[in-house]
Automatic annotation (TrEMBL):
It comes from the Archaea. Keywords: Exonuclease, Hydrolase, Nuclease. It comes from Caldiarchaeum subterraneum. This is DNA repair exonuclease. Residues 1-226 form the Calcineurin-like phosphoesterase domain. It holds the Pfam family Metallophos_2. SUPFAM superfamilies: Metallo-dependent phosphatases.
Length: 369
């Protein structure tokens, strides 16, 4: 039994911002489906963040339905859960439009119930925010009890969570609370591919199908999982059409040489270029940016400059607002979990005008802690 494990496709990323980079995610998804069909894989699991935003419309939905349709018409069964990018504004609520759209093409397993047949049982839960970790742990206990009484030959658990033991502060859950009753743990949320033994089975993150940030891994793909033997075996499938990215730093006096070198290189697909120039004062780089734009997509649409001043370095680069908000909130509240909660989901609901839902979330947050 071979299954394909995909995650974090983020269809619609850069929509309305950059058409070329938006297409990257559609092309990566199509390439993965091509491989699955050519390799005659019969089961696909997707660990969430299917879309980049929970709004179901336009090209992202069109591509999703077309590719799921290709799989379904070829007799491929697709099981999926939802990540935070797929979830509706109301906390912890699956987007009904997304679920209705894929009805008949793929099976949603994020409800914690058993899915599958006598050969394979598939369980899953949608993404749970850190504020609801206890509720997530309770649900996993119920899943474990049901899985123990299931007679299927193979059992799969699909989650969209980070793990403390593997991802440190990015983790939401301890590996110890994930039940040992499964042969394969199809994980999502973390963009770096990794795998490890878990009980009698194998736990794996395939990473993003196409990178979304400059510090994501350069190589992207998915896993083929062989469950026919006594122990699961993984095969990494590297996608060939992932956009390359290049990161360079150079002193002001050497920038001309660096640009000439970059322009002499040839690439099948325009790389994303992050070029940082160390200088003593801010310079007009427009001419160099225009030259580079012939062969590269510039990260942030420009060359970044680091100005050396008497007070240290000043980065000509937009700050990470989300990270700074969490940092400031943590200093005031003196609690990292509350800081993440109030600057994250709670703030997002207030911005969207869902005040009632936001305050319901506060009540749930403190009741669960």
């Amino acid at each position: 039994m071979i299954i394909a494990h995909l995650s974090d496709t983020h269809l619609g990323r850069y929509m309305g911002e950059d058409e070329e980079r938006e297409r990257d995610h559609y092309e990566a998804f199509r390439e993965a489906v091509d491989f699955i069909l050519e390799d005659h894989v019969r089961i696909v699991v997707h660990s969430g963040d299917i879309l980049n935003k929970p709004l179901v419309y336009g090209t992202p939905l069109k591509v999703l339905l077309a590719e799921l349709g290709r799989l379904s018409q070829s007799g491929v069964k697709t099981y999926f859960t939802l990540g935070e990018h797929d979830i509706a504004s109301y906390p912890g609520t699956p987007n009904p439009l997304l679920l209705d759209s894929v009805l008949g093409l793929a099976e949603y397993v994020g409800d914690g119930r058993r899915h599958g047949d006598d050969k394979i049982s598939v369980f899953g839960l949608m993404r749970h925010h850190k504020a609801f970790t206890r509720k997530l742990e309770d649900k996993l206990e119920k899943i474990a009890a049901e899985a123990r009484n299931t007679g299927s030959r193979r059992k799969i658990l699909i989650l969209h969570q980070g793990l403390h033991e593997l991802h440190g502060p990015a983790g939401d859950l301890s590996l110890a609370v994930i039940p040992d009753e499964f042969d394969y743990y199809a994980m999502g949320h973390i963009h770096n591919p990794s795998s490890r033994v878990k009980g009698r089975g194998l736990l794996a993150y395939p990473g993003a199908l196409h990178w979304t940030k400059i510090d994501d891994p350069d190589e992207c793909g998915f896993y083929l999982v062989d469950l026919s033997g006594r122990e699961p075996e993984l095969e990494w499938v590297r996608l060939s059409n992932v956009r390359p990215k290049i990161v360079r730093q150079v002193d002001e006096e050497d920038v001309g040489m660096m640009v000439s070198q970059l322009l002499s290189e040839n690439h099948v697909k325009k790389p994303l270029l992050s070029l940082m120039v160390r200088t003593t004062e801010r310079k007009n780089m427009r001419k160099l940016e225009e030259e580079l734009s012939e062969k590269y997509l510039l990260h942030g649409g420009r060359i970044m400059q680091v100005v050396r001043g008497s007070n240290g370095l000043v980065y000509d680069e937009p700050p990470n607002i989300e990270r700074e908000l969490v940092k400031l909130a943590s200093e005031v509240i003196k609690d990292d979990v509350d800081a993440v909660f109030f600057t994250g989901e709670f703030r997002r609901l207030l911005v969207e005008g869902a005040v009632k839902h936001a305050f319901e979330l506060v009540w749930k947050h403190y009741r669960e802690r």
